[in-house]
Every structure is written in C-alpha cells, then in structure tokens.
Amino acid sequence: MDRPVPSRGNPSLVSLKLYNFFIYGAISIFAGFLQLYLQEIGMTKLEIGSLMAIGPFVSLFANPFWGFWSDKSRNIRIILMIMMGGTFVLAQGVFYAPSYTWIYVAMIFFYFFQSPLFAQTNSLILGYIDGTNQKFGAFRLWGSLGWALTAVAAGPLIDRFGIGSVSIIFACMIAAAFVLSVFLPRQPIASDTPVVTFRRFGKVMFNPYFMTFIGLGVLVSVPNAMNSTFMSLYIVEMGGDKQMVGWAIFTSSILEVGVFLLLDRLLKRKMSMLLASLILISLLFALRWQLMALATNPMEIVFIQLMHSITFGGYFYVGTQLTMLFIPRPYRSSGQAVYTMAWGGLSGVIAGLFGGWLFQSFGAEIMYSIGVFFSLIGAVGFGIMWLSNRRNGYQPVVLTEMGSMDEDR
C-alpha cells in the first residue's frame, strides 16, 4: 500500500524527531554516569563490569522477544511505550536499591525493557520513511543531539547536586520521550503483509550471510562496548572530573549529526558499497583504540572521542541499512532487534566481563590494545564478505509466501 510522502511540517514527524532527542538523551545519562554512581557506593571495577554485563546478557533474549512482538502486533509505537514504562520504573529500582543484590536484580529487569529501545526506535523511523523521500539520518541525528547535549549539560548538574541526581535527570528524559510517543500515529500496514510466525522468523534470521555479518559485528563492537563501559572510570583514574566525563560523551556524539547527513547524501543503498564502508570503519576503530591505549591525560581522551561519531556512527548507520537489505520487510523489526542484540547485547556481555578483568588486572592500555586486534580481524572479515558479494551477489533463501526481498541489492 503506497503512503503519501509526509510533509516537513507533519506533526507526527516533528514528534518523532523530538522523541529521538529525549530517548537518546535519557540513555546517555544512564550509560555515562551509572558507573560513577556504582563506584561511589563502593563497587570495584570488576564488580561494575560484571554488573554491566548482566544487562547485555538479558538483552540477548529481550531484543528478539520485543522485536518479534513488534512485528506480530504491527504496532511498534505501543510496544515502545510499554518498554519505556518498564524502563522508567525499574531505573528507580537500580538507584534506590538497598543492597548490591537488589541492584543486580533491578538491572536484570531494567535491561529487559531498556535494551531493545534503540532497535525498535530504528524500526519505527524506517517504517515512517518507507516509500517516502525522507532519509533515516535526518531523524537519527536528533538522537545524537540528545545524547551529546544532555550529557554535557548533565555533567555540571551532577557535580553540583551529587551523583544521586542522575536518577532524577534520567526519569525526566524518559517521561518526556513517553509523552512525545503518544503523538505518534500508528503506521499503516499493507493488507498483503504476511503474518509473522516463529517458523518463518527462524528461517529468515539464521541465513549464513546474515549470521556472518552479525558475528563480525560482535567482534568489532566488543572494544567499543569496553570503551562505553569503562571510559568514565579511565577519565577519573587519570584525574578528570564528572564534567570532563560529560564533555567526553558530548564530543563522542556531536559530530554524528554531520556524519548521518553526509552518509545520507553519499552512500547508496547497495550491499557492496555498504560492506566496503564497514572495512574502512573497522580500520578507523583500530586507529581509535590505539590512540586510547597511548593516551596520557584525560583531555586527550576527550578529543579522541571525536572519532566515535565516525566509527560508531558510521557502523550504526551502515549496519542498520544492511540489515534492511538482508531481511524481508515483515521481519525488519526482528532483524533490527537481532542486529542490536549482537552489537549491544552479546558484545556487552563480553566487554563487561572480559574488559573488567583486563582493566583491573592489566590496566586500560592493554584493554584498548586488544581492541585494536579485534577491530583488525573484523576489517579482514568484512573484506572477505565484500569480495564474496562482488563475485557471487547475495541471494538469500526466503519462503515464497513471504513475498520477494527488496530489489535494490
């Protein structure tokens, strides 16, 4: 079913941009400052790493669960509202838990609702712009703005009012995102869209080409997850303060706005070009981790985070587009969920446990040096995928009743 091209002034699209700003801003607060809160209440680096690994482990199940039900219900907006409600309530459980045991329990349930938010938000954007002249990057850049501006504004507030104020700032941002999601109308669904079933889900998701892409993504994303988990501790260990942590998060995201706009303009939705881009991005990741290993003061770390916009921003954009090409339309929410599960779930588990052990036992320099090695292996793997695609193309086995895949491969 064709849908009219939304106008620039369409209230639903304005709400979608603002929703992205607040949902990403909320998670930047949690991701950037939770570790400092945990350290302040007495946790060691290994305990913090283990705790941060529990959430991504839960996301291994949560992402496919919520992705499947988004496809099944054909109403991503309602699913997102349910997840935001659970995230809001359980975050308070993390901050006000009376013991370490209750923090662990609250984190398990918190991540069940929170970890799939980005994947389902991406699916929501892609659903609204499908068949229109709107670009994914024009909406996703609002998330980068929310992430960057919220983090840099929160640093001085947290320094002034104490680390406990993190919970209040987070709650306000999530509440604003929830209110904005109310104004998003339900997306129209074509009448010939096939019903999503577990059997079809498995056949689509577990094709070898897609799984190779997912596996290499895990390899490249492990050092990125290590950096996300331990960067704030690294800055403080070098003598930096919470404001500098906020600036590091700001510099890591602010240039994503330009990166997304540039990729919208330059990159064609063609598999061979997207795979070639991942080779370059993986090499840039390797350079980034080498610079982090050689850093000698917190200000250097702040400036190195500028590369995050190109590396993570580029991988996020390209990976999202590739997942659309790998997966048939009725299963795209599930496909984005699996992609995010690998990027933020499995890699987060490895990063929390392995990275926490490396950081505590050998220091940050060794942790980042191993990240260089992982990124180089990823670059080689994507190079092999690119050569295979150039020679043989990509012809996934898809059940005939699902309809054909997009033709722009």
Give a summary of the structure in a few sentences.
The protein is mostly helical and 409 residues long.
Describe this structure in words.
With 409 residues, this protein is an all-alpha fold. Helix content is 79%, strand content 0%. It contains 16 helices and no strands. Helix 1 (11-40) packs parallel to helix 6 (136-161). The chain is globular, with a radius of gyration of 20 Å. The two termini are 22 Å apart. Mean pLDDT is 79; it is low at 1-9, 190-196 and 397-409.
List low-confidence stretches: 1-9, 190-196, 397-409
Mean pLDDT across residues: 79
Cα-to-Cα separation, first versus last residue = 22 Å
Helix content: over 70%
- Main sheet characteristics: none
Number of strands: 0
Helix and strand sequence: HHHHHHHHHHHHHHHH
**Structural class category:** mainly alpha
Radius of gyration, whole Å: 20 Å
Amount of beta strand: under 5%
Oligomeric composition of the shown chains: single chain
Tally of helical segments: 16
Shape: globular
